[in-house]
Amino acid sequence: MSKLKPNIELVIAKKKNEGFKIELNGKKVKCSQTHLAEKLNITKQQFSLWVNGRSFPRLEKAFELAHLLDVKVDELYTFIPEKRNMLDSMKDL
């Protein structure tokens, strides 16, 4: 089965190291899970589920998060293709 591996935490860490800030309530604040959750109008717990891969954002929220972080949506996740075993491969022949 194919799956997605979240890279959100790595993207946030990289942005923090670059001094990246987001605007929240008219102020520039450090990029954190708490601030991003607030900006996305979701709970901190929901954002944490996204970061840990236990839940995934709806497409609109994924694009909104990517926009906030100034990255492409595909930078937030790594696609891990399905591993097919030899028996499945032989069935296709």
From TrEMBL:
<dbReference type="InterPro" id="IPR010982">
    <property type="entry name" value="Lambda_DNA-bd_dom_sf"/>
</dbReference>
<dbReference type="Pfam" id="PF01381">
    <property type="entry name" value="HTH_3"/>
</dbReference>
<feature type="domain" description="HTH cro/C1-type">
    <location>
        <begin position="32"/>
        <end position="76"/>
    </location>
</feature>
<protein>
    <submittedName>
        <fullName>DNA-binding transcriptional regulator, XRE-family HTH domain</fullName>
    </submittedName>
</protein>
<keyword id="KW-0238">DNA-binding</keyword>
<dbReference type="GO" id="GO:0003677">
    <property type="term" value="F:DNA binding"/>
</dbReference>
<dbReference type="InterPro" id="IPR001387">
    <property type="entry name" value="Cro/C1-type_HTH"/>
</dbReference>
